[in-house]
Amino acid sequence: MTVVSQSTAGDIPSATRAVTLRGVVKSFRSARGTIDALSDVELSVNRGEFVEVRGHSGAGKSTLLALVGGLAQPSRGEVFVFGEPIHQWSAARRAAFRRDHVGFVFQLFHLLPYLNVCENVLLAATAVTPASRQRALALLEELGLSDRLTHRPAQLSAGERQRVALARALLNDPRLLLADEPTGNLDAENAAIVMGRLERFQAEGGTVLLVTHDDRAAQAGRRVIRLVKGRVVEADPGASVASESVERETD
Ligand SMILES: Nc1ncnc2c1ncn2[C@@H]1O[C@H](COP(=O)(O)OP(=O)(O)OP(=O)(O)O)[C@@H](O)[C@H]1O
Ligand SMILES: [Mg+2]
Question: I need a surface site. Which of 32, 184, 194, 251 has the fewest CB within 10 A?
């Protein structure tokens, strides 16, 4: 059985690593006490890797993505993205870094209802210039949405909304794409469009962290990271059956 807890090598996370987490803990306080959504997470993702993050509901997948994207800070530990210690940064500096280097696709799209399709994509732009508008239109065309530019989210299907959210995540030409169950609500055709675009992003040199509930064996070349109650259990590609048994034992 090939299931190991991964630890990072060396002291300084190289910029050839896209993501390095060291000793990361994320705790939340609630009425019932403190819960650790993530416990002692050690993780590294190389540039150009496509990593699937799997685990049961509540295992800490979205929390992990939020920390990597600088949306939240760890309670303890270190988070490096492209070698930068983002856990030491202010929210404003993390937001600027995110805008320049990271694309986020959320399960629930997070489109603004009063903006149309094109405006929602351009929301990611630092400034709406002819170049950013051209890129937005090119992405929307590539994702099959050219005839939906002036529709508002309420006038779109779930698959169309998710494609708008993906166009927005790609607008600034990020190096790292964080996708939280981007195909969760989609039919097979739309899921294939979204996954195809993520694969193209990787083929062009990008790094992908994809949260998925999909329990099929991972595709060749993809690494699966399994979270069990906030802890990382890593499976080699194709070893998802082995990691399932670990999950049952520890659950
Ligand atoms: N802001 C918060 N305040 C309190 N508890 C939180 C908060 N965010 C997450 N949690 C808790 O942390 C744990 C991990 O949550 P997280 O959203 O990361 O899980 P998940 O693996 O993404 O689950 P799902 O598959 O259902 O999306 C859960 O027990 C959740 O209730
Ligand atoms: Mg989640």
Answer: 32
